[in-house]
Amino acid sequence: MRASSISRVSLEVREQEVCTRPDHREPQFSAVNLLLLACLQGSCASQAGFGRASALPKGTIETFGAANVSLATMPTGAEYPVPLPYADILVGASYGLTERVAVGGRLWGLGIEGLSHFGVALDSKLELTPPEPGRRWHAAVAGALGYHQLVVGGTPLHVGSLNVPVLFGRDFGAHHLAFGPRLTWHVNAGQGQSTIETTTYGASVGFGWRVARRLELFPEAIVGWSPVGFNGQVESPEHQGASFLHLALGARVVWPPVDR
Question: What are the phi and psi torsion angles at 34 (to 5°)?
């Protein structure tokens, strides 16, 4: 099922019935909206942690962690959109396979009453610019294959994702500014619902602040938008599109120490 067909998804239990008259201007918010938005928001965590727009030197190991908060909104037909806050902890590691290729993985998750989740991803990064001494501008493309499970009110939701960020960066001495667009494809599945395919278009900006030879702080912000539809059978631009803002404060440790 494509993203444009997400409005026809049915779940076994719904808190409220959604009005299906095409001329209805104020559809009600329902459990299906919450679960579908949770599916979108659950994929936000897999967006963070790609770091600089350059690969690690060959044989170098980098470990990292981040505290993440995010906010997703969706159109409900009401005067104000309904936001859904989210948070998680992320840890990961990467290894410089060659001078221009790095591979690694990430784990993330959080558990609170009524909503728990965890995820895992396998990552790769290819630096497109030659790793020449003194180079200030960099470009890289990354790829991540991920799995994420959310449990909302006892109902498990499964999200598979393919994330492809394109990163551009500039060195400021030992520090680094990274930014660029990204494209993410999700496959969502859960009990009582059809399989849903969605695409998210986004962009990110982050800054690597080198505080020691081995340690770097890396705050980043990521925005995204997906053309999903909500509210039952109502087909209208007013009921389509969901967006998120994701903020992460991370720290990265490199071994052995390198002067980048």
Answer: -60, -45
Pick from 101, 42, 62: nearest CA to 218: 62
CB count in 10 Å sphere of residue 19: 17
pLDDT tens string, the chain, 260 residues long: the values are 444 443 333 333 333 333 334 444 444 444 444 545 555 555 555 688 999 999 899 999 999 999 998 888 876 666 666 677 778 899 999 999 999 999 999 999 887 776 788 899 999 999 999 988 889 999 999 999 999 888 877 778 888 999 999 999 999 999 999 999 999 998 888 777 778 788 889 999 999 999 998 999 999 999 998 887 655 444 556 667 788 889 999 999 999 877 66
Q: Rounded to whole angstroms, how far apart are CA atoms 233 and 20? A: 5
Q: Are 215 and 209 in contact (CB under 8 A)?
A: no
Whether 88 contacts 68, CB under 8 Å:
yes
Handedness of CA 81, 84, 85, 90 (dihedral sign): negative
Take residue 61 and report the two structure tokens written for it. Answer: 């190991």
Give CA–CA dist 32/18, Å, rounded.
9
